[in-house]
Amino acid sequence: MSNDDAPERVRRIATLLEDMYGAPPVRREDPLDALVATVLSQNTSDVNSGRAFRSLKERFASWDDVRTADVREVADAIRSGGLADIKAARIQRILDRLHRERGYVSLDFLAHLNVRTARDYLMSLDGVGPKTCACTLLFGCGMPVFPVDTHVLRVARRLGLISSRCGAEGAHEVMGSLVPSDLVYSLHVNMIAHGRRRCRPQKPRCDGCLLARECTLGKENLPE
Ligand code: SF4
User: Fold this and answer.
1) Which atom of ligand 1 is nearest to the CA of 209?
2) Distance of CA 30 to the CA centre of its chain
3) Of 33, 55, 90, 205, which residue has the fewest beta carbons closer than 10 angstroms?
4) What pTM does this model have?
5) Cα 208 to the chain's mean position, in Å?
6) Pocket residue to mutate for ligand 1, from 9, 20, 155, most atoms within 8 A of Cβ
7) What's the pLDDT at 219?
8) What is the pLDDT of residues 79-97, one digit of tens each?
């Protein structure tokens, strides 16, 4: 894909995905909820991390209660999300830092920063990488920062938006520069929907996929 074609192609792909899955309603979360939920989603399925997040919110009345609890109690609450001991300690370190620096436990101040400053701050937190950072900014702050999860990475590679050798970190950079701000939310949500429902890791359902003509694998799988 030449750089000249890229914006037009990304827009075409976003439109075709909306034809398949609709324009997703914009969902906003508390930024700290979004951050913790994404930390919990590391190395596990959405079902397991969702269960762990709900359990954490039910067990503790506030994020400050999570911060001051015994780390074993936090780990118990998120056991269903896997790597519970590591994630519990990571979450407490983040909450501790917020409390130490600001005197309260919240990420609401991010909304008053520009995207670059907000990103730099989140990336400086222990255990926060590009995906967690981007999810927090997109879902928690409404900033147009494109997160790349495992579904987005696979679909983007198959569509040739990124190279097949590009890893998750590089993919954040490439997609961040490719996707116009007004398409970030829809394209991210619909690429995940596409990766779950049709463009699955094994045996993608290329027959009937509206993206087939945009896709290397799809063209191979299409009848002549
Ligand atoms: S044509 Fe197949 S591989 Fe390409 S995006 Fe569609 S489902 Fe995925």
Assistant:
1) 6
2) 15
3) 205
4) 0.91
5) 27
6) 155
7) 74
8) 988 899 999 999 999 999 9
